[in-house]
Amino acid sequence: MQQLFARLYLVVLAGVLLTACTPPASSPNPGTVRIRWARDPENLDPLIVSNASAYEVANLTHCSLLVGRESVHDFVPWLAEEFPTVQRPNDSVLLVTYRIRPEATWDNGSPVLAQDVALTLKVMNCPGLPIEKDQAVYGFIRDIQLDSADARRFTLVCQGQSPEHIRTSGDFSILPEYILDPKKQLRAVPLPAMLRQPILPAVQALAQRYQALQVARHPENVPGCGPYTVTAWQSNRYLTLSRKKKWWADALAPAPAQLQAYPTKLVYQIIPDAATATLALRRGEVDVFSLMPAAEFARLQQSAEDQKRLNFYTADSYEFATASFNVQQPIFRDAATRRALGLLFDVPALIKATQQGGAMPSVGLISPRIKPYYNDSLPLPTFAPKQAVSLLQQAGWQRGATGQWARPSKTGAAQLLRFGISYRAGEPTFETIALQFRAAAEKIGIAVELRPTEQSVLSRQLREGTAEMSIRNFSGNPFSYDFTSLLHTRGIGADNTTRFATPLTDRLIEQITSTEDATRKTRLLRKFQRVMAEEVPFKVLYFLQYRIAAARSIGRVPVSGLKPGYEAARIRPVPTAQ
Fold first, then answer.
1. pLDDT single digits (tens) 252-282
2. How distant, in Å, are the alpha carbons of 49, 165, 472 from that of 333?
3. 168 burial via Cβ count (<10 Å: 0-12, 13-18, 19+)
């Protein structure tokens, strides 16, 4: 009887949560697609794209020069007319020349020009703005040369000759000069002068103007040249994108895939709980549920009623689950301790428990699907508590009479092997991983505290370096192998939240990004994976399979191994059959 009551209570609670998390249900316009998000984008400033939701909005409201396409395993022209031409005038400089599509215009009808790109780069180099991530990723772009005979043509002057720089040089949102520098004062300031001290008055004015626009909460103040605009946003409830009635790419016939935008409205409903989101999908209040938990996905597939109403898709992704160590924490500074703790994850059992077997174990951060670069000579992760004990002893840890592990510290006080493991609250997969690890750790005398944390708080803790160990996912792609922001010294304070970097790994990352020789790149990437397996700043557990369930009424959903697992703009809604 108590179990029956508990089930009834959960159903009622799910209904209450659904009502609280979604806008009022109504019969949507045939051109509307309603998509479930697990979390709020939090910040829509294009300088701070801090989570997958914000990244999706940025890609629908703004355009970059190039965009990655999984189907070709490479970048393709987006705002650019064609792939850039490249010159190498000497051993240390790369000149990358673009021309913007002549059809491209801003919302006020003015053309998108090279001056907009120049202004965007100046914003990304403007003191007083949150430019740390841009500096880590795009700092190699040292100057821009405008073409006096063609207002759409320009050349980026890049330091170094990395082939990765060619693609990365086109992978940032272009911002409108007419909004951010209406008096064109910044045109007289060369890009290299932006970071000089003392800061120029025009540069200070740009920072003040940008801050006053409050783009984080008001993205409409800096409109992009993409097909959609944000027309409604209630934090942690929903966000609505509306298609522009006149978008410049509509003049292209036929439009390439990256410039197709079919839905008239995209409504993102923020429903953190997966069970509640599944209920919304079944009730017809959500059309697309991506990144669906394996158990929910399998349950719907087995339902005859749901099979009639829903289409089911899967895609092998480039996203991987990890256990990350903050190597600045004293107990995690030595690789032997990190390797020992990595042996306490039972990866096959976790794949079965959390992914219904639909995931791929990996030796490191390159997907086993990328066969040329994947180091298959390394052993797959194993569950070996006895070996972990031996490694801990080699690292100087000793288990005392109380059962606790300790070792001397430089201060003379005993250093205890006890720590917290942080993860996003309400994420069942992360919780299962943390529980399995804690159970294995406690069996050999290691005290582990579980710390489920609200995502925005966790993100801040990771940036500030206060989290000790964390369970999280990282997203990769099949066309770029630049690990600068993730694992290089220059990434510390931005995306390098493990704070791991060594002279050897910095040098390897730089060599990987600078070589054009495929054989040498393969050798370097395999060596990099071997070094990572020895250092273990994070333990790669497995690569995920994306699962998407979607209402048949919206037609086929273009799926992708790149996050979020679908291409929202390319969904072609069809009228519901009567």
1. 988 999 999 999 999 999 999 899 999 999 9
2. 30, 32, 20
3. buried
